[in-house]
Amino acid sequence: MAAPYLEPKDWYPTLPTAYVSAIVLLTDDRDRVLLVKPNYRDYWALPGGILDPDEQPHECAEREVVEETGLKIEARALLVVDFVPPLGDRPKPMINFLFDGGLVADPGLIRLQTDELDDFDFFSWKEASARLPDLTAPRIPAAREARQTGRPVYLPATR
């Protein structure tokens, strides 16, 4: 038996929802990955954050990089999309967009946002992956693959 038709105002609230974030891969002239160290977490992260209302993922990525590092970048190619299931205090899944931000030609221009971040540094691809939590570490090799092949990578949640 078919479900009864619901008006959009009644139907949309019944749909599953997710949080959305956007992050950026930036590398230096030695092909090392830029990570930032949030002061509210025990681990390092790629620059980025949660979308604001009415903001598109690439706009969020660009805004967050400016806020966190002072670097004005263009969120270029989409490298990775990943899906992270609800976890801990987060009751909904997270969909994350990872964009290519290109090369940081002059790391001396980085101005760290000290309200939220304690440090930044450039790491080899392997080191960068090791500094991220197990749940998000696969973003680093996936981003490298996407940069090399020119094709985005989708990372579904592991179960």
TrEMBL record:
Keywords of the record, alphabetical order, are: Hydrolase, Magnesium
| Domain Nudix hydrolase: from-to ranges | 16-145
Q: Which Pfam families does this one have? A: NUDIX
Q: Does the keyword Metal-binding apply?
A: no
**Cofactor(s) the protein needs:** Mg(2+)
The source's domain of life comes to Bacteria
Gene Ontology MF terms in the entry = hydrolase activity
Q: Which InterPro entries match?
A: Nudix_hydrolase, NUDIX_hydrolase-like_dom_sf, NUDIX_hydrolase_CS, NUDIX_hydrolase_dom
Q: Which SUPFAM superfamilies match?
A: Nudix
Q: Name the family.
A: Belongs to the Nudix hydrolase family.
Q: What is this protein called?
A: Nudix hydrolase domain-containing protein
Q: What organism is the protein native to?
A: Acrocarpospora pleiomorpha
